Amino acid sequence: MKQIGATQPPKARKQGLIVRELPDEVLIYDRDRDKAHCLNQTAALVWKYCDGETSVATMVQRLECDLKASKVDEKIVWFALSQLDKDNLLEQSVPLPSMMEGMSRRQLMRALGLAAVIAIPAVTSIVAPTPAQAATCLPTGQACSSPAQCCSGLCPGAPTGTCS
Q1: Does pLDDT of 7 surpass 80?
Q2: Can you say whether residue 14 is alpha, beta or left, with left for phi > 0 and alpha for psi between -120 and 50 degrees?
Q3: Which of 37, 95, 127, 151 is the most buried (most CB within 10 A)?
Q4: Which contiguous run of DSSP H or E holds residue 144?
Q5: Higher pLDDT, 122 or 129
Q6: What is the Cα–Cα distance from 147 to 130, expressed in whole angstroms?
Q7: Which phi and psi angles does 20 have, rounded to 5°?
Q8: What is the distance of C-alpha 4 from the center of its chain?
Q9: In what order do the strands lie in the sheet with 17-21?
């Protein structure tokens, strides 16, 4: 992944993603990597602001407006960008300022204080099965330990049953 310069604003990746917006979060399925991501409201807003034209300073102002917060620390935006970058949700890598290098969520919470806990961005990711893996089931006559394993959905005698 190429790294963007300090003056070039970040741009969200759109190719190869399936995006579903919900009231307080955004769900993203990365078809290229078979990973699912759940962005909380703050992370989702930062990702939405990543249009390749919006600066971090402007993102801070927009967050204050959208979250109806009197003051949003710039570290929150940088933390969200670091998470989005780590999960390949940006077109190019974002160089972090030295104040953010290696900062964990816990360290960010300490630095910002308890008042910022609600606004801390969170990106939760899981590896999702490929469509072929998700569709795999056991045919009739195969040993099974639960009905979910069988194509028929029937596993009499589970946990040591046979698909019927």
Answers
A1: no
A2: alpha
A3: 37
A4: strand 143-144
A5: 122
A6: 21
A7: -125, 120
A8: 21
A9: 17-21, 25-30, 35-40, 123-127
Q: What are phi and psi of 42, to 5 degrees?
A: -65, -50
Q: What is the mean pLDDT of residues 124-131?
A: 71
Nearest-angstrom CA–CA distance, 74 and 106 = 16
Give the residue from 35, 75, 42, 80 showing the smallest Cα distance to 57: 75
Contacts of 75 (CB under 8 A, 6+ apart): 99, 100, 103, 108, 111, 112
Q: What single string gives the DSSP state of each residue in 14-48?
A: -TTEEEEE-SSEEEEEETTTTEEEEEEHHHHHHHH
CB 90 within 8 A of CB 13: yes
What does the block give as tokens for 163? Answer: 């698909």
